[in-house]
Design a protein that fits this description.
Elements: E1 4-9, E2 18-21, E3 24-27, H1 36-47, E4 51-56, H2 64-74, E5 78-82, H3 88-91, H4 93-101, E6 106-110, H5 118-123, E7 130-132, H6 136-149, E8 159-163, E9 166-169, E10 206-209, E11 212-213, E12 230-231, H7 234-248, E13 252-255, H8 264-277, E14 282-287, H9 294-302, E15 305-313, H10 317-322, H11 329-341, E16 345-352, H12 359-372, E17 376-381, H13 389-398, H14 422-437, H15 440-452, H16 457-473
Parallel strand pairs: 1-4, 1-5, 5-6, 6-7, 10-13, 13-14, 14-15, 15-16, 16-17
Antiparallel strand pairs: 2-3, 7-8, 8-9, 11-12
This protein binds iron/sulfur cluster (SF4).
Length: 480
């Protein structure tokens, strides 16, 4: 039997756009992303024979009244939506809105960050019937198939659900083995790509996409540490980009992978294919600093790469070693400077408040910033997300009371270190932004970049306005 399934990206939270994508489940004032994982899920459900619809309330700036209308119109058997820890209660209104129309509609929510606390999630979300807590690519189709066929739910790995007054949690899911087996995301369910951009509305039409997923590294603070790395090959990625170019006139893509350059040979193949095909798409990626060098960055630039994001975390080797980053400060410096030399915009992200942080290590990070002057930076505070080693280190032995997961956001500390209080860490974060934004050399370096890359002028202007607005009016909250 086939089911009618409606995929839902919930509305913005207090008017602020929300990113609900696996490791990145945050409010983000200056970015609007299409619900990529829901587009993938829709394509997989369609392939399995189900009838699908999709509504992106966040992207289209619609509220729960629009969802109610859509549910009345589409009359789904089941809905699948995403939620995040900090917007938890707001996102759960999706389930209550759906149940308000018809209680017999099954509601399933996806969230990665809370995957180690399924009982708490369902315990606090009375209208959510199922929690898809891992590997949505394999788990959601298995769940919908089980519902369609009436097969035992206990056999669906990677979920939590209610049975009477009990919450049942099934065993770990099996990740998708062949990432190339994924069908093209169901982009046809979006009217267009107009609402979507990262950081500033420039370079549109824009999309994110995963060319690989997972990260085998073991950074102690990271929610995806040690997850199996799965990758798509160059032809499969090119097929998606070609489709986007033909149907939407795509100009910019952000490869959302955790470590895009994990496999050098694959990156070289992607770059060569992009050069050969000359799709004229500018793209951005994230990776680790020790996984690039001048030669690779040069090839990436030639293939359309215009920006790269590195998780630097700290300018202190002591802190990097403590969190098992397995990158040296020198490697990080070399990577930032090499990327800038290849005219790539460089976004560096840092974390204050990792174990052992003191004013000395904060100063080392500020020194790193002054020496490398990345094009832009995110200064976050450490968040002991459930399931991470950092969480174990802080709450496993200290007996400290755990904060409400709704308060876990990287712009406000919930916990300090031995030497620094949460207030100190928030102060360090502000000091770091000030160090970068008040640097005359930083402004000069970015103006020099603009002279060499005049096509970035619009983006740079929007970015400068964003910084001013965010720094002056919002205290760098809900934004990077
Ligand atoms: S390299 Fe990045 S994605 Fe991988 S574990 Fe470390 S922080 Fe997480």
């Amino acid at each position: 039997m086939a089911l009618k399934v409606l995929l839902i990206n919930p509305p913005r939270f207090e008017g602020i756009s929300v990113i609900r994508e696996e490791r990145c489940e945050i409010t983000e004032r200056y970015s609007v992303l299409e619900p990529y994982s829901l587009l993938q899920t829709a394509a997989l459900l369609r392939k399995a024979g189900h009838q699908v619809g999709l509504v992106d309330l966040n992207g289209r700036e619609l509220g729960y009244d629009a969802l109610e209308d859509e549910v009345q119109r589409f009359r789904p058997d089941a809905v699948v939506y995403r939620f995040t820890p900090t917007t938890f209660d707001w996102d759960q209104r999706t389930a209550s809105t759906v149940k308000g129309v018809d209680r017999s509609i099954t509601t399933a929510g996806i969230c990665w960050t809370l995957h180690t606390m399924p009982k708490q999630v369902l315990g606090e979300a009375p209208d959510q019937d199922f929690y898809v807590r891992q590997d949505y690519e394999t788990v959601t189709p298995a769940l919908i198939d089980a519902l369609a066929n009436g097969s035992p739910l206990g056999n669906v790995a990677g979920i939590a659900y209610r049975e009477g007054s009990e919450i049942k949690v099934t065993g770990p899911s099996v990740p998708l083995k062949n990432y190339d087996s994924l069908p093209l995301p169901a982009y046809d369910l979006l009217p267009d790509l107009k609402p979507y951009y990262v950081t500033a509305p420039a370079g549109r039409p824009f999309t994110i996409l995963y060319t690989s997923k997972g990260c085998p590294y073991k950074c102690s603070f990271c929610t995806v540490a040690g997850t199996p790395w799965k990758m798509r090959t160059a032809p499969h990625i090119l097929e998606e980009l070609r489709y986007l170019k033909e149907h939407f006139g795509l100009r910019t893509a952000s490869f959302f992978d955790e470590t895009f350059t994990f496999n050098r040979k694959r990156v070289e193949e992607i770059c060569r294919s992009l050069i050969d095909e000359d799709l004229r798409i500018k793209w951005y990626c994230n990776t680790r600093a020790h996984l690039v060098d001048g030669e690779l960055l040069g090839l990436m630039r030639k293939a359309g790469c215009r920006g790269i994001s590195f998780g630097i975390e700290s300018g202190s080797q002591r802190i990097l070693d403590t969190v098992e980053k397995h990158v040296t400060v020198q490697q990080a410096k070399d990577a930032v400077l090499a990327a800038k030399a290849h005219r790539l915009k460089v976004l560096c992200s840092f974390i204050f408040g990792l174990p052992g942080e003191d004013w000395e290590s904060v100063e080392e990070t500020l020194k790193f910033v002054r020496e490398t002057l990345p094009t832009s930076a995110q200064f976050n505070v450490a968040v002991p997300y459930p399931g991470t080693r950092l969480h174990e280190q802080i709450y496993g032995v200290s007996g400290l009371e755990e904060p409400d997961f709704r308060k876990m956001y990287q712009h406000a500390s919930v916990v300090g270190t031995e030497k620094l209080t949460p207030e100190d860490l928030d102060k360090a974060r502000k000091m770091a932004y000030k160090t970068l934004y008040s640097s005359g050399r930083w402004w000069a370096s970015n103006i020099k970049h603009l002279v060499r890359e005049p096509s970035d002028l619009y983006l740079a202007t929007r970015y400068a306005l964003k910084i001013t607005n965010n720094y002056v009016f919002h205290g760098m909250k809900d934004a990077h």
